[in-house]
Design goal:
The complex is a heterotrimer. Chain B is α/β, with parallel strands linked by helices. Chain B folds into two domains: 234 residues, Rossmann fold; 111 residues, Rossmann fold, CATH 3.40.50. Chain B is built from twelve helices and 15 strands. The radius of gyration of chain C is 11 Å and the shape is globular. Classes of the chains: A alpha/beta, B alpha/beta, C alpha+beta. Strand 1 of chain A pairs antiparallel with strand 4 of chain C.
């Protein structure tokens, strides 16, 4: 009998503080699996953003830095330009990447910075108690759009992959999700491609992961997956948006 | 090296940074320091180092945070409005105990202000606009040579204490051209190694969390007490000032940067007229030479602060004298530069003033 | 024969594994773990194929899979 699935070396054994069914748990593990696969543990630097995953240092068993809200792509730029040998994983939520950090995101993409960006899109602000995110759906309720997001007042949700994929510095942009083993494996393959791009210094990569937030959506984990499949994946199409190596889906 | 050339202040800062081994420059254009960014865009590439014109001042300071975290010398530069944007980043850098050097070539404010020289960012430099209990080592050069020499020292001090440091210049110093000796950079032999904490090569240590957040019970206070101990050490070791003709002075002017040059000329003329005037020039704005001022205040009963602001340095001088002397103010701002004649006139008013009168020129 | 091992006290009872298991041999236990959740249990272990879908879906690294 051999163990075919277990705790990656790049994960610490701590039980996470994340809610039951939170997508961060799966996303952190996928990143760790790839850090192990590419043997990057001693060179990897994960960026813990502001948001629930501010705690990422407790779970990733490699160097982690805490960045200011939205500034992870700038910090990642400083690290990867300062020491091109290190491997930077820029990990952000929807507020971090698409609200306060929009400029940093677009410009890191535009400069073709050689790091991986993991974008956890759960259409809500988790850590602060469930406020509207730039990716909150029309009609979706949140603490700051209690009657549902009204585009006339609050604008429309932002599709980040669509926004950035045509910038010339971009190497790979894809959107995945984690609602089923099939999608988890697909998302893992997208992350793997992103890792390869960064290691090969091909440019900037983004993997957006549509992720459940059962607590702030006010649902049980399984209901959250159901809602995510029905509503989120309807609006946020899965797939590859840019691949500088011309790969097909 | 050691050749003497004519160089613009902003560019002198850049050359000093290159000589001191700055590996990464990140900056955003803003007047009156654009020559520094432009100079670095050329020199850093020449030296095969990193130059990025960032998308904003906020991005630049966060790039510095990243570069410092992987153990390389890094800097950014701006003027008041841009330094305001950087405050959160500076607070993070101080909290995470990283060495970053930056430059403020001060202009008129508040708000968009103007592009003329000023010294109205004294509070911002020394108190931070950033949040939390932290300090930045602030150098206030008064000529192009000092811009060069204190830039080199700024990098060393940042590394020595794992803390941000800065040069506070004004638009006049940044723009002026003066003779400069390109002193050779001599790296100190006793700077602590960065290997135990720089990220990305943990071959000899466990994974590390580089952060400014400490949530556990009592942890952040503990961290702050450690920071304060560091600041006490810096205050003990790094104060710098120049005193000119203070020993028999009845009035001592306190001024830094361009204001000090004007005050010095006023002092020379006042002396020629028989007035006993001296000048104390802080070179570090933090740590502030408060012990020296308190010592002077035992004998000197009138100080005249000359600054290109309407009352910032003067507050620190008033604090330092502990009520033992009167502290008067000669303030101009937002491109208004103190004039020798006006300073001398006020020195006479101070000399002739009675009782508890505190004089101000506006 | 393939099997899974469950670290009961890590489990938060999200039931993603229960849904993902193609053999439908997982359920949330009636008992509680030390965090107050109903942890997952495999009630027909002999049917386990070692596909690891349960482990892939688990946000908490509760499940190890052996083949």
């Amino acid at each position: 009998m051999e163990r075919v699935f277990g705790m990656p070396e790049a994960m610490k054994p701590e039980r996470t503080l994340y809610c039951p069914g939170c997508g961060h748990g799966i996303a952190h593990r996928l990143v760790a699996e790839l850090v192990d696969e590419f043997k990057l543990r001693e060179k990897a630097i994960g960026i813990a953003p502001v948001g629930c995953s501010v705690f990422a240092d407790k779970y990733w068993n490699f160097d982690v830095i805490s960045a200011a809200h939205g500034r992870a792509p700038a910090v990642a730029t400083g690290m990867s330009r300062g020491n091109p040998d290190c491997f930077v994983i820029c990990y952000q939520g929807d507020g971090d990447l698409a609200a306060i950090g929009t400029a940093e995101t677009i410009h890191a993409a535009n400069r073709g910075e050689h790091f991986v960006t993991v974008f956890i899109n759960n259409a809500i602000y988790g850590m602060t108690g469930g406020q509207m995110a730039p990716t909150t759906l029309v009609g979706q309720r949140s603490q700051t759009c209690q009657l549902g997001r009204d585009p006339a007042i609050m604008g429309y949700p932002i599709r980040v992959c669509e926004l950035v994929h045509e910038l010339p510095g971009v190497a790979f942009v894809a959107r995945g999700t984690v609602d089923s083993p099939k999608h988890v494996l697909k998302t893992r393959s997208y992350l793997k491609k992103a890792f390869e791009m960064a290691l090969g210094r091909k440019g900037w990569s983004l993997v957006e992961i549509i992720s459940p937030c059962p607590t702030n959506w006010g649902m049980t984990p399984l209901k959250a997956l159901e809602w995510m499949r029905k509503e989120m994946l309807e609006f946020y199409q899965l797939g590859v948006f840019a691949d500088c190596e011309g790969g097909q889906e | 090296m050691n050749e003497k050339i004519l160089m613009k202040g902003n560019e002198a800062i850049g050359e000093a940074a290159v000589q001191a081994g700055c590996q990464c420059y990140f900056g955003y254009p803003i007047t009156p320091q654009n020559e520094l960014t432009a100079y670095m865009s050329k020199r850093m590439i020449e030296e095969d180092r990193v130059f990025i014109q960032s998308e904003s001042e906020i991005a630049a300071i966060n790039m510095c945070f990243g570069a410092a975290a992987v153990g390389v010398r890094t800097m950014t530069s701006s003027s008041g409005p841009g330094i305001s944007l950087k405050q959160e980043g500076i607070s993070y850098i101080a909290g995470a105990e990283l060495p970053v050097f930056y430059v403020n070539v001060m202009r008129g404010g508040p708000g968009l202000g103007n592009i003329a020289p000023a010294q109205s960012d004294y509070f911002q430099c020394t108190r931070g606009g950033g949040h939390g209990d932290y300090r930045v080592v602030v150098y206030a050069p008064a000529d192009v040579q000092e811009l060069y020499d204190y830039t080199m020292l700024g990098f060393d001090v940042a590394d020595r204490y794992r803390n941000p440091s800065m040069v506070a210049a004004d638009g006049i110093l940044g723009q002026m051209m003066e003779p400069l000796v390109l002193n050779e950079y001599k790296p100190p032999t006793d700077l602590p190694s960065k290997a135990p904490w720089r990220l990305g090569d943990p071959a000899t240590r466990e994974p590390l969390w580089m952060t400014s957040v400490h949530l556990g019970e009592g942890k952040l206070e503990e961290h702050n007490l450690r920071l304060q101990a560091k600041y006490d050490e810096i205050a003990k070791n790094e104060v710098r000032f120049e005193e000119i003709m203070v020993d028999d002075a009845e009035i001592v002017m306190v001024a830094y940067g361009t204001s000090a040059r004007i005050a010095r000329s006023a002092m020379v003329r006042a002396r020629a007229e028989g007035m006993k005037v001296g000048l104390l020039r802080p070179i570090t704005l933090w740590p502030f030479p408060d012990a020296k001022i308190l010592e002077l205040a035992d004998r000197v009963k009138n100080f005249l602060v000359v600054e290109m602001s309407l009352g910032q340095l003067v507050e620190d001088v008033r604090l330092a004298v502990c009520g033992k002397a009167r502290v008067h103010l000669h303030g101009r701002t937002a491109g208004g530069v103190p004039e020798e004649d006006a300073v001398i006139a006020q020195l006479k008013q101070v000399r002739d003033s009675k009782g508890d009168e505190i004089l101000r020129n506006f | 024969m393939p099997k899974i091992e469950v670290d009961i006290d890590r489990c938060k009872g999200c039931a993603y594994c229960v849904e993902a298991c193609p053999q439908k041999i997982l359920r949330l236990s009636e008992t509680f773990n030390n965090m107050g959740y109903h942890p997952v249990e495999c009630f027909e272990p002999e049917k386990c194929t070692g596909c690891a879908f349960c482990a892939m879906m688990c946000p908490d690294l509760v499940i190890e899979v052996y083949k």
